[in-house]
Amino acid sequence: IQQQIGAPFKSLIGTFKNPDKVGQWKSIYNSAQPQDILMPQGKGGVVALPEEDRSISDLYKLILLRAIRTDKVVPGILQFVKNDPRLGPAFTDPPLFNLEEIFQESPDPWTPMIFVLSPGADPNSDLNMLAEKEGKMANFKKLSLGQGQDKNAKDAIYKAKSDGSWVLLQNCHLYADWMPEMQRLIEQYSDENVREDPKVLNPGFRLWL
């Protein structure tokens, strides 16, 4: 870094050789969140750097993080954006999830609602509350997909699109082989020539994936 960038890190190499500073660099390297040490909220310098280098910008601190802990570059970029007064948390914090609002904005029964989930996320609680509010909880069919569940899933969809109930198919990624067939099934009842016919598709039907 010192050789390629120069001035902002004019004493950097010396700090790695300085016995009084090695422990501080080691604590940054071993930290679970080194980006919080290098780029804390508000103003503050990197303590392990010489005093004349401590006021380097967050961009240079991000370069330093890239050199020390490559695995923390993405969290570091998020921290950089969050700290920047021209950008801020609006560019990093996800918007509040409002399932009811999303449901109201997409009233067509032929359009499946797809949850793209991060590990550990579970929309079941929000979905149950919405189903209760819409009077759909009593006949809300939920299936966890996997080998051999294709017939149960098809039967549930056929029944629900006829009587106007809801179906939730969970863990679609575990049955990728069946997704093309499910797509064809959805295309059949969502065809613009038939989707407005209540004999083909009950207006109360919803498919959640």
Characterization of this structure:
44% of the residues lie in helices and 6% in strands. It is elongated. Strand 2, helix 10 and strand 3 (206-208) form a beta-alpha-beta unit. It has helices spanning 2-5, 12-17, 19-30, 34-38, 58-68, 73-83, 99-105, 124-133, 150-163, 179-190; strands at 141-144, 166-170, 206-208. With 209 residues, it is mostly helical. Helix 5 runs antiparallel to helix 6 (73-83). The protein contains 10 helices and 3 strands, in the order H-H-H-H-H-H-H-H-E-H-E-H-E. The longest helix is centred in the C-terminal third of the chain and has 14 residues, at 150-163. The chain has a 3-stranded parallel sheet with strand order 1-2-3, with helices on one face.
Pick out the low-confidence regions.
none
Q: Name the shape in a single word.
A: elongated
* Series of secondary-structure elements, N-terminal to C-terminal: HHHHHHHHEHEHE
Quaternary: single chain
Number of H/I helices? 10
Average pLDDT over all residues: 84
> What is the strand arrangement across the widest sheet?
1-2-3
Largest sheet: 3 strands, parallel
Helix content: 40-55%
Radius of gyration equals 27 Å
Number of strands: 3
Beginning-to-end CA distance, first to last residue: 48 Å
Beta-strand residue percentage = 5-15%
